[in-house]
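Q: I have 121 residues here and want to know how they pack in 3D. Can you give me a structure?
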Amino acid sequence: QVQLVESGGGLAQPGGSLRLSCAASGFTFSSYAMSWARQAPGKGLEWVSGIYSDGTHTYYLNSVKGRFAISRDNAKNTVYLQMNSLSPEDTALYFCAKGANSESITTNDYWGRGTQVTVSS
């Protein structure tokens, strides 16, 4: 069965960095786009970033452009989200999601349980 397990969250200071990882199993990872989304306390789910199955195209929420970078290692069945210049507004539960096909970054059919990111001094 499809499993997505996020890790790498934690407490960071404003201006700091974190690197999230999502280990995938149960499907042919290299054939599907992957995405990251987040949910801040009291708010709805917000798409953050997506990457095509072959890694050639990446997309970002405007508010994270230039600060976050998504990447993937198809040999390791893992997708990453490098987060730099973090601000308290980035505090949220971050989820990894599997796309419905190789280029689907906003239509997702499986989700992980999330990893908490808290940005505070």
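Q: Anything worth noting?
A: The radius of gyration is 13 Å. The chain has a mean pLDDT of 97.
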